[in-house]
Amino acid sequence: MNGQFQIATHVLTLLCKQPGELLSSDYVAGSMNVNPVLVRKEMRKLRACGLIESKEGKAGGYSLALPPQKISLADVYKAVKLPPALGQAKNKPNPECPVGRQINAHLDHLADDVEAAIIKKLSTITIFDFVNQFD
Amino acid sequence: MNGQFQIATHVLTLLCKQPGELLSSDYVAGSMNVNPVLVRKEMRKLRACGLIESKEGKAGGYSLALPPQKISLADVYKAVKLPPALGQAKNKPNPECPVGRQINAHLDHLADDVEAAIIKKLSTITIFDFVNQFD
DNA sequence: TTGTACTGTAATAATTTTTATTACAGATAA
DNA sequence: TTATCTGTAATAAAAATTATTACAGTACAA
User: Fold this and answer.
1) Minimal Cα–Cα distance from A62 to chain B, Å?
2) CB–CB of A103 and B9 under 8 A?
3) Is the pLDDT of residue B101 over 80?
4) Which residue ranges does UniProt annotate as crossing the membrane (chains A, B) (predicted)?
5) Which nucleotide is closest to the Cα of B4 by its C1'?
6) Domain tally for chain B?
């Protein structure tokens, strides 16, 4: 299991709900019951992709770098870099076997197709859309 | 990481390439360099879904229960029951927070949509198609 | 009917991944 | 100059995955 996408989406939701405010990792971590360092780690990825901005020092924190209509869940997915949806084998198939010799190439190609399908789906939903579902 | 889908697909590929033969978990495990018990565990799932058959006793092993044109990779995906593609948070968000109170429901709904997109993609590919890519 | 070669399954250990915790340097506002 | 943040590393704890061992049960074959 892996809650990185959920953490990132949770923070973006909070940022979207409180526009203009800088939210600290402690505040956010409190809303989700998770360690603040984990929040800062995800924020680093989001910032590297230009989705959020951060400000250090007293009264610092995080804010959206783009209007929420411009941030898709596909952007979030790509930013957090989850392990592949089909999993990832770490075995080394037997190169003597005609199947073992080739299968990783075919599985990799398949994994790429699946990732593309996920991204296609997620690209239809923005953080704005997601947040609008809330009461 | 998690190689369960890869194991299942590897076995089905071997079964497809050697129709009529019963392949043992040891033989299969040798082709992929993985523990035979792991193979038997995945086979249990595939059998529960009616994709393969197994025969105990001497000269026993596994065989396809359906023609490979009738087995889609979506069937395999559903059989192995991977963890959700978007991950799965195990935190309990703060119920005092308006976002924390609702977000899991919305994240679950999103996860369902993504799983559906994956299955839709995988349902277009059969084991027969997959194996036909091999030289 | 006895030995051999399998599956099925449980229990446990080893490995890997994820999350939590601690610590502290650096930035910035009051 | 003090308090409150981010950024980051190091390490520990927890959880998930894979490997290993063991053995009961099944089926074939000599």
Assistant:
1) 17
2) yes
3) yes
4) none
5) D17
6) 1
Query: Which value, to the nearest 10 degrees, does the dihedral of the CA atoms of residues B114, B116, B120, B125 take?
Result: 80
Residue written as token pair 């360690």: A35
Confidence band, pLDDT 50/70/90 cuts, at residue A89: very high
- In terms of Cα–Cα distance, which of A81, A48, A61, A64 is closest to A13? A64
Residue A93, domain extent: 4-132
CATH number at residue A111: 1.10.10.10
Residues of chain A with C-beta less than 8 angstroms from the C-beta of B75: none
Q: Is the pLDDT of residue B1 over 80?
A: no
Chain B hits for A2, CB-CB cut-off 8 Å, are 83, 87-88
B55-76 tens-digit pLDDT: 999 999 999 999 999 999 999 9
Query: HSE on the CB side for B130, CA within 13 Å?
Result: 37
If you average pLDDT over residues B6-27, what whole number do you get? 96
Ramachandran quadrant class, B57 (left: phi over 0; alpha: psi -120 to 50; beta: rest): left
Q: Of all protein residues, which has its CA closest to the C1' atom of D17? A: B2
Q: Is A52 helix (H, G, I), strand (E, B) or coil?
A: strand
Q: Which of B114, B90, B81 is nearest to B2 (CA)?
A: B81
In this predicted model, what pLDDT tens digit does every residue of B21-35 receive, in sequence order? 999 999 999 999 999
B74, B122, B132: which is closest to A115 by C-alpha?
Answer: B122
